[in-house]
Design goal:
The protein is of the alpha+beta class. Helix content is about 55%, strand content about 15%.
Length: about 80
């Protein structure tokens, strides 16, 4: 019999897998596996390289996150 929380378990495992993939992206960029990501527009994915350090982020996701946090903060203030 399936648990009532099986959908949450699957969602949680999916989010963990996506998080691990996100942590591996800088290493994969160094190994030539995902060089095609560098050709994407910087508004979708931004890659910073300097002194052996690689930082990958998505400006769109940052803006969406800030807007959502602002929305939640304003909802709590009223």
């Amino acid at each position: 019999m399936a648990s009532d929380y099986s959908a949450f378990t699957i969602l949680g495992l999916l989010l963990i897998a996506l998080g691990l993939l996100a942590l591996l992206i800088p290493f994969l960029l160094e190994s030539e596996a995902l060089r095609w990501l560098e050709r994407m527009p910087p508004i979708i994915i931004y890659i910073y390289r300097g002194d052996g350090f690689t930082f990958v982020t998505s400006p769109i996701l940052i803006v969406i996150s800030v807007l959502y946090l602002l929305y939640r903060w304003l909802q709590g203030a009223t």
